[in-house]
Amino acid sequence: MLAIRAANGWTESPASDFRRAEELVEQALAEAPRDYLAHYAKGSVLRFQGRCDQAIPEYELAFEFNPNWLNSLDFLAACKMMTGSIETAISLEQQAIRLGPRDPYIGNYYGRIGQAHLLLAHTDEAVIWFEKAVGAIPGYGNPHAWLASAYALKGETERAASELAEARRLTSRYSSIARLKAAGTLGGPGYWGVPKVRALFEATYFAGLRKAGMPEE
């Protein structure tokens, strides 16, 4: 929770919160080195700092120690995507869906597959998965924003504008490109992956959002 608070800008001392979070998770792992939640927490602390390459082995251990904890698989996929292993991210999310077809967070898995396909310029495939995500997690702005981008890249500007309006109604971060970039994606504030992945975000996600009508500032 300290890492979440720091990553979302809900504190005036994020660096202090991250240090305290690291201390707590190392204490937990010293007491219980095979505890899946401790490894999951460490992975999340690292991910929220934009250190996805270091988070990956922690999520792998968390899933190894408890294969029923599919959040580990989901965030492992997120970190794989942000470090450039985009096809691997798709495979991991498909595995999560097979293991938990009724998982309450399945909408996140759908959405992550859509994100990976959009970054790979598989726009039609991305739309299918974003539609599934919107249906699975109503009231959540993120899949609407991604769907807006995908529709805009397909030239369906009216549908794109409608989805963007819904995303902005649900979540304030979609007010502008600048604000969205500052907020970052899963992996820390302002973090959009390694350079080649950031370039893919620019060429697909942000390009689509601009076409959908999102202002720069």
Textual characterization of the structure:
The chain folds into 2 domains: 1-83, Tetratricopeptide repeat domain (Serine Threonine Protein Phosphatase 5, Tetratricopeptide repeat); 105-217, Tetratricopeptide repeat domain (Serine Threonine Protein Phosphatase 5, Tetratricopeptide repeat, Alpha Horseshoe), CATH 1.25.40.10. The model has no long low-confidence stretch (mean pLDDT 95). The chain has helices at residues 2-7, 14-31, 36-48, 52-65, 70-82, 86-99, 106-119, 123-136, 141-153, 157-170, 177-183, 195-212. It is 73% helix and 0% strand. The protein has 12 helices and no strands. Helix 9 crosses helix 12 (195-212). It is mainly alpha-helical.
Features:
12 helices; 217 residues; mainly alpha
Q: Could you give a quick summary of the protein structure above?
A:
The chain is mostly helical and 217 residues long.
| H-E order | HHHHHHHHHHHH
> Mean of the pLDDT scores?
95
Q: What is the number of helical segments per DSSP (H or I, 4+ residues)?
A: 12
How many angstroms separate the termini?
30 Å
Topology at a glance:
Blueprint: H1 2-7, H2 14-31, H3 36-48, H4 52-65, H5 70-82, H6 86-99, H7 106-119, H8 123-136, H9 141-153, H10 157-170, H11 177-183, H12 195-212
Helix pairs in contact: 2-3, 3-4, 4-5, 5-6, 5-7, 6-7, 7-8, 8-9, 9-10, 9-12
